[in-house]
Amino acid sequence: MIRLPMPWPRPSRPDAAPPTDGIPHIHLIDTAIASENIGDEIIVDAARRHLAPILADCRVSSSSGHDGLGPAGRKLVASAQLVLLLGTNALASRYKVGRRFMWRVAPADVPLLAGKVVLFGVGANTPFDRVEGAQKAFLSRVLSPAYRHSVRDGRAQTIVEAAGHVALDTSCPTLWDCADGRYRPPARKTDTVCFTLTEHKPDPSDCLLIEILSEAYRRVVFFPQQARDLRYLREITDRTQIEILAPNLAAYDRFLSQTETDVVGTRLHGTIRGVQHGRRALVVQIDNRAEDIGKETGLPTISRNALPKLSEWIHGASEAQLRLPQEQIAAFLQQFPPAR
To answer: How many CA atoms lie within 13 A of 6 on its CB side?
Structure first.
């Protein structure tokens, strides 16, 4: 049985005592800062929304996951009682300290982070056969032993447990609001489809995807989740009738809220954003993330190798029912002190 700290724990460093005003200081490692991938923004948006009630009485600071702490971030982490790492594929099975990574940690950061980091919806970045010993030692040191950690998938859970900590497979926070029948997409196709591509994982099947969508829908819209995705689209097709959305989350949200559209594509969280808006959606699997989340939650997915069957989904009836691990989600959130 884990004894949970109530109220917020004191800083582990004696020279970093909390302010005399008694207000707890929580530091957020924001994986959307300095990221060109709007998917990271979608993940952090959900994480911050679910954290809002917990942090209502706290002093909250943040730093960039991609750039690392830096001088100002180190001072903030030193005085914080807890450090929450927000989402994305920040758990690796290989040792990444001192290297450029989506959770960038310098050797000087490790003593400051020691025992303070709590994972919130963090996934594994790649499949693996084993967790390196150095990575186990790193995670064993920096992760908080007093809290259970929220991970996005079973692979991430394996990494955390290999480091000697307790992990709850809560799935991705972007889906937490879509369970228990709250996701009710239209059963039939619309006249419009919004699709995504992934430039850094190209495949000839992307041309087939565009062809199938163009034949099935009257209006075809492309959302560039990363700027380079638009360059890739223009390299593989000359279809001038494809509309291009502005590459920012506000424009995408506006389109999804105002347009009856299906959402299909290789971008996992770009497609999940469509789910959040109640749209009929399908993820084309290009890596382990969509496959893992699809198996665990029922999120509609299709393999790239099965794209010839995409027309069946487009023209067929859709009855998506998402399954989320509600007990694990509640267990993670309820371990934090409630706001007064």
So the answer is: 9
Top pLDDT among 153 and 329 is at: 329
**Do residues 285 and 302 touch, judged by C-beta distance below 8 A?**
yes
Q: Please give the backbone phi and psi of residue 84, each rounded to the nearest 5 degrees, phi first.
A: -100, 120
| 8 occurs within a structural domain | no
Residue 4 domain flag? no
User: Within this chain, do residues 148 and 273 fall inside the same structural domain, yes or no?
Assistant: no
Structure tokens at 325: 């691990």
The domain in which residue 30 lies consists of 25-177+325-333
Residue 192 and residue 137 share a domain: no
Residues 173 and 186 both lie in one domain: no
Tell me, yes or no, whether 189 and 301 share the same domain: yes
Q: How far is CA 36 from CA 226, 230, 271, 283, in A?
A: 6, 13, 17, 21
Q: Where are the beta strands (DSSP E) in 55-175?
A: 59-64, 82-86, 117-120, 149-151, 167-169
On whether residue 5 sits in a domain, the answer given is no
How do residues 13-30 score in pLDDT, each as one tens digit?
A: 434 445 546 789 999 999
**Structure token digits, residue 125:** 């970045």
Q: What are the strands, taking DSSP E only, across the chain? A: 25-30, 59-64, 82-86, 117-120, 149-151, 167-169, 192-196, 219-222, 243-244, 262-265, 281-285, 301-303
Task: Name the domain count of the chain.
Answer: 2
* Confidence (pTM): 0.91
pLDDT digits (tens, 9 = 90+) for 241-288: 999 999 999 999 999 999 999 999 999 999 999 999 999 999 999 987
What is the distance between the alpha carbons of residues 89 and 227, in angstroms, rounded to a whole number? 20
CATH of the domain at 274: 3.40.50.2000
